[in-house]
């Protein structure tokens, strides 16, 4: 089974990786350069423009290329600006989670003993709680806001880094250059951050890309449930939720943000796979 | 495919139950052919969950009180035409200014044979009045001084002063058996004289009723009434279209047309008695003591445009009062604040407000029709005159806690109705003594008091005219519109639509 999958991957592998990278670059470019396109205001209501049919004319962005939503806002503009929100939250959450996770992993792996046991039990506890449930509880308790959302998403993602980094550190700390640094009296913190850290960053990068896709989807779920981004600001999950009452009558209101979410998650995943294949010697 | 879509559509913000519903809908649609109900079963979708079966604790008309109306009997009930008719009561009349006399129908008994007579009526009302019962409806009986048994079929309710709306309030009071209550819990069990008996109650999911063969007051017309809790609007639409549900409410307006066109089911709307408003906390800065600011916000919102675009013209703009013309005490002389952003800006200046003014707008979800949309439009229009409203969407249950706990934010979107369709109940929501009034105005309270102090309809109208005019001018809310009440029915029934929230199997006629 796995072998068969591997075959498919090696056949399409080179290409799918590039497709992912190109898609991801395109998404990031569009989202980052959004203000330069002269898009209509994504939050300004225009009741006369409710459910305007799409013109698919992407050359004249004032003509509702993807149509208007239930409050007459330009759907394309909302998807682009919603992507800013979704991707920014994703990147910040992954970054924050990564920093916490890497530090925990470094200390657990380096000091071993009781530090390791305590930190790894913490990881186990975290892993035993369903992530969505944890996120819902925390946001419900603290109230929905952008900061809380980012903190919660980071909270759900640090454990993966911690586990992997700890494993790497256990191996690296026995290597000769670490031993010799220790022998000449280099301090523990310096060994950890200057000598070990650079050698464990490769898998961290791979995890980060895979986490990014997961966190973007989780954010969409939270926003869908009304616990994420507050209106009138769009995020993809929020747009899906807002469109669901019109699924039967105007499906495009939720279909297009769904497509954007799908394409981005796919692109990030493909890029992550590609990166892992390139960096992980065991898979080469 | 249908299953997938309804599953997607079924998940709702802030509610775990919706997941169950989605799963239920998916499963039941798959088995729709198999479970296609016989003509004698009536399946009703309730838009929110049934909290209790106990009629003394019931407060939400659309769910708890309606369920109680199937299981128990009231003295009087309100028909779809808005008029009261006797159920347990044969007739009733006021005796002077301080009492009401009710003549009861003889020979009514509970299933076990004990009589539902004047004695039982007194026991029930006294029980509600007793603070230890912690009945949510106790406040309605504050003006009542004594319940007197005249004969087994006559009961006199003495009041501390005139209480013109007592019969209206009694339409929401149902009678329990004193004997049965000694050993049973009415919150999860039922034992009444209503047209149906309880067959099954799964909290948060469904309620199944069977006919009560011993009912003499109102006869059952269906072999089974099944009430399902379907909080998600799109799931209710799917259920109606699939023939899975016979009666559902609060459907999105776009879907009303779609259902009609489909030919598979029917849908429609009636003007409701519920007025949507943006509550302003007039006890909190910056809205406290600043009438001009509150008026400015009223000028800033385009009610007409909202009804036109969002509701497809199906709502009616509030006439600067929270009552619709269906209410006793409606003031037809009042006109809505026109949409006039320039005037709003000028008033803001006069009010001494520095713009942009930052203000919070709380929007409770899953309770009011299109709440999220209305909230965003209001915020957008306030923005145009320099008031930056930050929207805070939250689950209705969580929001109500702060609202009832005298801790509402600066502004909140809210829909208000009073089931008796009388100014006394509706306007009392803004009497300073009410914990959820967020409004403290002497002239308004005086007018309300005057209205309550007499049973003469002309004098009462006069008093409520003063009260509504005062409320319009003081503007403790942004008056929006009366929302339309939408419903869908299957092909096999017709429903006598009413603007209120009552859900009664007796209003349903088999085709």
UniProtKB/TrEMBL annotation, chain A:
Family, similarity comment: Belongs to the binding-protein-dependent transport system permease family.
Keyword DNA-binding (UniProt): no
Organism whose genome encodes this protein: Chelatococcus asaccharovorans
Spans traversing the lipid bilayer: 12-37, 85-110, 131-161, 181-208, 253-275
Keyword Ligase: no
Alphabetical keyword list: Cell membrane, Membrane, Peptide transport, Protein transport, Transmembrane, Transmembrane helix, Transport
ABC transmembrane type-1 domain ranges (all copies): 83-272
Protein name listed in UniProt: Peptide/nickel transport system permease protein
Any one of the GO CC terms: plasma membrane
Gene Ontology biological process: peptide transport; protein transport; transmembrane transport
Protein's cellular compartments: Cell membrane
Topological type in the membrane: Multi-pass membrane protein
TrEMBL record, chain B:
Name assigned to this protein: Peptide/nickel transport system substrate-binding protein
A molecular function GO annotation: peptide transmembrane transporter activity
PANTHER family linked to this entry: OLIGOPEPTIDE-BINDING PROTEIN APPA, PERIPLASMIC BINDING COMPONENT OF ABC TRANSPORTER
Location in or out of the cell: Periplasm
Residues covered by the Solute-binding protein family domain: 84-433
Signal peptide interval: 1-39
Example GO biological process: peptide transport
InterPro entries documented for this protein: Peptide/Ni-bd, SBP_5, SBP_5_dom
Family, per entry: Belongs to the bacterial solute-binding protein 5 family.
Highest taxon, organism lineage: Bacteria
SUPFAM superfamilies linked to this entry: Periplasmic binding protein-like II (SSF53850)
Keyword set, alphabetical order: Signal, Transport
Organism: Chelatococcus asaccharovorans
Record has Signal as a keyword: yes
